[in-house]
Amino acid sequence: MFTRCQACHTVHPVNAAVLAQGGGRYRCGKCHKTGNALEALFDEWPQARQQGAPAGDLPELGLALSLDPDKERQAWTTSEESDLPQRKSLQRAVWIIAVAGLTVIITWNLARFLQRPLIDAPWLQLTLVQLGMRQAPPQAPFRALDQIKLLSRELKAHPFRPGVLLLTATIVNRAAQSQAYPDIDVTLLDIHSRQLARQLFKPADYLPNGSDLRSGMTPQAYLTLALEMPDPGDGATGFELQFR
């Protein structure tokens, strides 16, 4: 850069350090007059009648300049803070995708090692149901056989059918909710507790015709049974009744 003395028109080379030293002002080494280098500043050696760049508005040097350093610093800080949640969300999403991908790879290799199809994995089945991509399997009916209590029982010869025994019993469901009707396993025993005969009664065998098997046993409701089975002879002295 060059500046020209306004008094004697001598051209002097200058640089940023020289301009900063005097705040733009200087003393001419030829005429010893003082002047402002910024009033006649040139990029190249000036021609005889060439004038320096006139003063005007604040120039824009690629970025908008602010005369208030505190406001400029605050603007940069606010911009960085506003971008911080977005960057954190992006990082979290990348981590989740990476972990999910790694989990699938490990599970796939484990399924191959165990020779078990990946689609049969219980956790995957549950995930597909929760996402609505697979229908939930039907739930098994509630069963609590230990809550079915035998209140009374009696085995005797059938009053109208020779060669047939009649077992009458009363049972109740002590569970807090309805449960499926049980299968009733009856075993006839001799005096030495050896099995003489055995018969399994399904709900359709002991419930009245037209009963709704799907409704199940109502809690605390008594159910009277009348079960018929062939008489094995005089050797039958006892019996066992179990719920299946």
How would you describe this structure to a colleague?
- By secondary structure, this protein is α+β, with helices and mostly antiparallel strands.
- The protein has three domains: 2-42, no CATH class; 73-138; 145-243, Immunoglobulin-like (Sandwich).
- Helices cover 27% and strands 25% of the residues.
- It has helices spanning 16-21, 69-114, 122-130, 203-206, and strands at 2-4, 11-13, 25-27, 34-36, 41-42, 148-157, 164-173, 184-189, 195-201, 222-230, 238-243.
- The strands form four sheets. The protein has a three-stranded antiparallel beta sheet with strand order 2-1-5, with no helix packed on it. A three-stranded antiparallel beta sheet has the order 6-7-10, with no helix packed on it. Strands 9-8-11 form a three-stranded antiparallel beta sheet.
- A hairpin with a 6-residue loop joins β3 and β4 (34-36).
- The N and C termini lie far apart (106 Å).
- The mean pLDDT is 82.
